[in-house]
Amino acid sequence: MTNIMPALLAATLETLIMVAVSVSFCVVFGLTLGAWLAISSPQGIAPSRSVHQLLAAFANVSRSIPFLVLIVLLLPFTRLLVGTSIGTAAAIIPLVVGGTPYAARLVEAALLDVDPGLIQAVVTLGASPTQAVWKVYFPEAIPGLIRAFTVLAITMINFSAMAGAVGGGGLGDLAIRYGYQRFRLDVLILCCVILIVLVQIIQLGGNTLARRFDRRR
Amino acid sequence: MSGDPAISVRGLSKRFPGAPVAALDAVDLEVSAATIHGVLGLSGAGKSTLLRCIACLERPDAGEIRIAGSDWTSLGGADLRRERSRMGIMFQQLHLLASRTVAANIALPLELHGTPRAEIASRVAELLDWFCIAEKAAEFPAQLSGGQRQRVALARALATAPRVLLADEPTSALDPETCASVLNTLSGIREQLGITILIITHDLRTAEALCDSVTILNAGRVVETGPASQVLNRPTTDVTRRLLAYNELAAYQHPIQRANFEEIGQP
Fold first, then answer.
1. Beta-sheet pairing, B221-227 with B213-218
2. How many whole angstroms separate alpha carbon B59 and alpha carbon A38?
3. A43 by DSSP, 3-state: which?
4. Are B131 and B123 in contact (CB under 8 A)?
5. What residues of B are in contact with residue A216 (Cβ under 8 Å)?
């Protein structure tokens, strides 16, 4: 029986890298797209039916493609950006493309949760739409945004395991190669346990942070 | 122009889409500088719509709004945002930012208008002292009492040294002690800062205690306007008399309930 620990450690590290990098990009792109979705919505500070419908259509189309299909669909784009379609770096591209619209919808929901009366009050104080986003929407929605990004990170762990199945590396890749192709049930179970522990840590950390930043109580 | 009224509203009309009647119907209102004017009426009279139109949160269908001589009716975009420093608003729900400390809440309008940092710090310190909340500067709104939150909201409304203050139901849902404190503060603001105050209220006691003049609204129309003592003591319309009767009933409701309870409780 070969020692699986080095491979497990390497795969865990790959998963962590994939999730950390893709979540970072998704947070930046998701905040931007989500903020536009929120401010252009009928309840937003600068309602615009056409802008909102265009952005919503983009977010919906991207989210309606199954992630495995998206990986295949993006192969030429991935090769163009990172020079290869296999490996951890290559897996990050579909993760970001697939995760951004999801993040945007979560951000939109968190921002629209901010009391509309508060936004109007700040408008009467002289805020421009940009100022309202930076000084009211984002700061007031911090607990909601933390919870949204916690959900996003957990979804990215899920997605990264799928990316692993098509040569993206990480725990998903290891589970398929050893657990499925070589009948190593112990490796399969170990991979699942590590994924479960990762999700628990992220959820616990997210809940704690969200509570710490919640000033409403 | 010094001779202009601080707030002048002429022929203001507003009908919301699908509504069977107009929320405001040719409303005229004039408030002299450095006075306190109350707008009274029952629920649905159009008081809040009037305040929202004056604050440019709603666009009227017709009419003109002038604040300290300048026409606000056609203002928009950056021009309106700049002019907003001349009008402070205290909302019924206060709308303080939960994520900001007391000091940061008061500083917000100054930040929005691009005031230099040193100037913001000194103005905030001045307002914290004025409203006796200096020791609460680093606390968050959720940590304050109702009365303290009212003072923070007032301090924020006055941060840009506006010439006009709009207050929407400033004493509703307050205990008698906090209510008296808010009335004293508003009166003090007018006397010491010479600000014009427009109060929206359904409470005649607030109007009696504070206002120099009042306007009674009913179904979006002005039914009576004049000096507070005259309108409230010698009403000439049925609407005002009904409003007075409702307020008297509300004032006595509590003691009546208590008396009933005591009666039932006796052996």
1. antiparallel
2. 22
3. coil
4. no
5. 98, 142
Please choose, from the candidates A126, A114, A117, the residue with its C-alpha nearest in 3D space to the C-alpha of residue A34: A114
Instruction: State whether residue A3 is helix, strand or coil.
Output: coil
Is residue A153 scored above 80 in pLDDT?
yes
Report the pLDDT value the prediction gives residue B262, as an integer from 0 to 100: 39
- Cβ of A216 and B142 within 8 Å? yes
Interface contact A118-B142, CB threshold 8 A: no
Q: How far, rounded to the nearest angstrom, does the alpha carbon of residue B78 sit from its chain's CA centroid?
A: 25
- pLDDT band of residue A16 (cuts 50, 70, 90) is very high
One-letter identity of residue A92: I
Question: B62-67 and B7-14 as β-strands: parallel, antiparallel, unpaired?
Answer: antiparallel
What is the DSSP track for A200-216? Answer: HHHHHHHHHHHHHH---
Residue with tokens 């050893």: A178
Choose among A126, A213, A216: nearest Cβ to B84. Answer: A126
- CA pair distance B29, B21, nearest whole angstrom: 20
Can you say whether residue B26 is alpha, beta or left, with left for phi > 0 and alpha for psi between -120 and 50 degrees? Answer: left
Query: What are B112-138's pLDDT values in tens digits?
Result: 999 999 999 999 999 999 888 999 999
